[in-house]
Amino acid sequence: MLFIINHISLIIFLKVPPSNIAHNIYKPEFSLLQQEILRYLIIKSGMSFNARGLAKPLNRTQAGIVKALPELEKQGLIKINKNKDSGRWSIEFNRDNQKAIDFKRIENLKNDL
User: Fold this and answer.
1) Residue 38 above 70 pLDDT?
2) pTM metric for this prediction
3) Could you tell me which of 36, 54, 58 has the C-alpha nearest to residue 90?
4) Domain segments of the chain: what residues?
């Protein structure tokens, strides 16, 4: 397995026999919206947002943001806390998760190129 980091993304080349190509179709781990949310939270690491606070700068709907968050939380990349009194969500990048830190490093490398 060969790892190459370029200015667009992390590319992984695998040696796959021709007979197995149909079974190894690449499927992105996250949707484009989830990637945008994660990238924004990485850039604004240490800050907390509600759904509206994410929707506005990303030019997306609050409903779309809310729908995209559970998978990112399940993967441990973001933290979501709900205020008991107001019911508002507090969404932030999870700096305690190694996978999240790895994503941040990749994003930093892309920005350096």
Assistant:
1) yes
2) 0.72
3) 54
4) 30-112
